[in-house]
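Hi C.,

You asked whether I'd gotten around to modeling the 242-residue construct. I have! Everything is below, sequence then structure, no commentary in between.
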Amino acid sequence: MSKLILHGVPVSQPFRSVLWATKIKGLPLTLQTAVPPKHTTTDKFKALNPRGTIPVLEDGDFAMCEGPAILAYLADTHGWDDLYPREPQQRARVLEALSWTVGTLRPATSRIIGPLMRPDVAKRMAESPGLGASIYAGPADSAGGLSHVLTSLEAVLEHRPFLASAGATIADLSAYCELGQLQPALFSDPATGLPLFDFSPFARTTAWLDRMRAQPHHDEVHAPLREFCLHLTKKAAKAKAG
C-alpha cells in the first residue's frame, strides 16, 4: 500500500474534513504543511496541484485536490461504505449534500470568516473594493446571506438527523467544517470577541451541530482552529494597545 500524504493546514475547512474522516477510520496519514499562499504558489506545489489550492492528497504517484473529491476517493479506495454508501440513491443524497456545501454553504461562511483568517484576502479587499463586494463581505453584511442558506438546511433536517441519511456521511463532515467554525467555542471575532453568527433561530441546525460535535475525534481535529483564533485575538489586542 502506498504512503498517503495530505498537504495543507488544519485551519483549512476542507483539510479538516479529510483529516477528520481519516481519524474516524484509523487511516494512517502523513501531514505536510502547506500554507496559502506562501507554499501553494511554488513550482513544487503546482506540480502536484496546478490550481494552487489546499488540501492536496498524494497516494503514491497519484495526486489530487478538492476536499469533497478526496473524501470520496478515500471512501471508495478503503471501503468506507457507511460514510459514502455505494447504493446509487443513497450515494446520490450524499453527492447532493456535498454539492450544496461547495456551491452554497461554503461561499456564505467564507464571506464571514475568510477575511478574519486570511490577511492576504483582507488586503486584497482593501485594495479592490469590487473584489470584496463580489467575494467576501464583512460579518454584518453576510449574516443575512447565511441565514437564507440555513433556512434551506432547516427544511432538510426536518426529515432526517443528518444531511443525507440517518447517520453521518462525508457530506456532514464537509458541511460541519464550513459551518461549525462559526460557533463561538471554535472561533469568534478576534478584535471584539463577539460571535460570528447567531444560530439561535435555527433549532434543527443547532441540534445537527451538536450531533456532529459528538462524532469521534471532533475536538482533536478542531483544536488547531481554536488555537489559531486565540493567536489572532492576542495579536489584535497587542495591535490595539499599540
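If it helps when you're writing up: The domain at 4-78 is CATH 3.40.30.10 (Glutaredoxin).

Thanks,
B.
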